[in-house]
TrEMBL record:
Protein name per Swiss-Prot or TrEMBL: Uncharacterized protein
This protein's UniProt keywords: Coiled coil
Coiled-coil regions listed: 193-220
Organism: Alkalibacterium olivapovliticus
Domain of life according to the entry: Bacteria
Length: 297
């Protein structure tokens, strides 16, 4: 077994975080962010239709760029996903990027799939990286036109048997339902493209459903928390005071009920109340409401 294959097998046995750390040590970090921050912000505001990229690329060295946060987000470099899910720019800063050759890239995605039970990592694995490896090293179709592809092909080169051996090892990282039980063979590009489109649509649909479920769960949690809040403070409901009401709103109510004679305006009260935590403000406000209620009753 050659040294390169040994390195890949060692990487397979690490956790995702450990693998990222090892690759950062091996290849070094990025000298630039993935996108230009101002351009990214303008894109999120829909002022422009594309995002200016940073000078991060190292394909001249045969290395791919991988977003470290791909274990928590899908399609981080996809403009449609960025605009739809409002991905923050902080996911694209240079300290959130790691470089890897083609097989290392596949291993990172396999480790993500393993640790997230297939929720993340698989789209890139199944629709982009794995097919490229099969074409280049099993099908032995060396890229001819694009220089960056030639560089990446050369950097990660393994012969067909070594490639199959490594792919079988990596495949075992995947959740059982995604493991390849068939013989590893080269499939023509036309068929690959068809599968890529089908897989992409399927994964995007699953992701949208997951995001919608997450949204509904958050709504449910908010409703439950609101019920608990009004159970403890029933008189807050008619004043539209909720558990997440702003300090400014709470202090404004306090001013109207309890402090209008002590402070000239609400801003002065806000300044005086700066050291007071929000829970204490809520208790003070509720006491003031009950006091006024008893006096009027």
């Amino acid at each position: 077994m050659n040294e390169k294959l040994n390195d890949y097998n060692d990487l397979v046995n690490l956790s995702y975080d450990e693998a990222v750390h090892r690759l950062l040590h091996k290849h070094g970090g990025s000298n630039d962010d993935y996108y230009r921050e101002k351009s990214y912000d303008r894109f999120l505001k829909k002022e422009i239709k594309s995002i200016t990229k940073g000078k991060y690329a190292r394909t001249a060295e045969g290395l791919f760029c991988h977003h470290v946060a791909e274990d928590r987000y899908l399609n981080l470099a996809n403009k449609e996903f960025i605009i739809k899910y409002k991905y923050p720019f902080t996911l694209h800063t240079k300290d959130k990027l790691v470089f890897c050759d083609l097989f290392e890239h596949l291993i990172l995605h396999a480790l993500i799939a393993k640790e997230t039970n297939g929720e993340f990592g698989l789209p890139g694995y199944l629709t982009y990286i794995y097919p490229m490896i099969i074409e280049w090293y099993v099908g032995q179709r060396k890229p001819q036109k694009k220089e960056w592809m030639k560089n990446c092909h050369e950097r990660a080169y393994l012969n067909p048997e070594e490639t199959k051996q490594l792919l079988r090892t990596i495949d075992l990282l995947l959740p059982l339902r995604f493991q390849n039980k068939k013989e590893i063979v080269y499939v023509p590009p036309e068929e690959i493209r068809k599968r890529m489109i089908e897989n992409k649509k399927k994964r995007e649909k699953e992701y949208e459903e997951a995001m919608e479920n997450r949204r509904l769960q958050e709504i449910k949690k908010r409703e439950e928390r609101t019920k608990d809040f009004y159970r403890e403070y029933p008189d807050f409901e008619k004043l539209d005071i909720t558990f997440d009401s702003s300090r400014k709103k709470i202090i404004a109510k306090l001013y109207d009920l309890d402090y209008s004679t002590e402070f000239q305006n609400k801003k002065e009260l806000e300044k005086a109340m700066k050291p007071v935590i929000k829970d204490t403000l809520l208790e003070q406000l509720y006491s003031a409401i009950l006091r006024e209620k008893n006096q009027s009753g």
